């Protein structure tokens, strides 16, 4: 987790530099708040991951001399091709259109979202359980 911690803290430090330069050039404090929030969204998880990586034993990914066989874990079951992500996208799109056209599109969109959630859950069961 040391690499992940460094990446997050690096993103946070980048946004700290950006907010300092932005505030000095523009003098606008309103938009600087969003950049400060972006910096905190990088620094806070990075510090947490760094703190957590000191408390746990090192992972194989944190060593320099690691081989691919040491990192590889159990591979799970992934369903074959399915239409449900597309249906979910349509549902989210129709639900978002409710901000423009009214609540009736949210009702239709939520129908798509719920059916996609049910269909995706049922289609992702392993084939060994399909006979039940």
UniProtKB/TrEMBL annotation:
<keyword id="KW-0812">Transmembrane</keyword>
<dbReference type="Pfam" id="PF12270">
    <property type="entry name" value="Cyt_c_ox_IV"/>
</dbReference>
<protein>
    <recommendedName>
        <fullName>cytochrome-c oxidase</fullName>
        <ecNumber>7.1.1.9</ecNumber>
    </recommendedName>
</protein>
<feature type="transmembrane region" description="Helical">
    <location>
        <begin position="31"/>
        <end position="53"/>
    </location>
</feature>
<feature type="transmembrane region" description="Helical">
    <location>
        <begin position="74"/>
        <end position="97"/>
    </location>
</feature>
<dbReference type="InterPro" id="IPR021050">
    <property type="entry name" value="Cyt_c_oxidase_su4_actinobac"/>
</dbReference>
<dbReference type="GO" id="GO:0005886">
    <property type="term" value="C:plasma membrane"/>
</dbReference>
<comment type="similarity">
    <text>Belongs to the cytochrome c oxidase bacterial subunit CtaF family.</text>
</comment>
<comment type="function">
    <text>Part of cytochrome c oxidase, its function is unknown.</text>
</comment>
<keyword id="KW-1003">Cell membrane</keyword>
<dbReference type="GO" id="GO:0022900">
    <property type="term" value="P:electron transport chain"/>
</dbReference>
<keyword id="KW-1133">Transmembrane helix</keyword>
<dbReference type="GO" id="GO:0004129">
    <property type="term" value="F:cytochrome-c oxidase activity"/>
</dbReference>
<feature type="transmembrane region" description="Helical">
    <location>
        <begin position="7"/>
        <end position="25"/>
    </location>
</feature>
<feature type="transmembrane region" description="Helical">
    <location>
        <begin position="103"/>
        <end position="122"/>
    </location>
</feature>
<keyword id="KW-0472">Membrane</keyword>
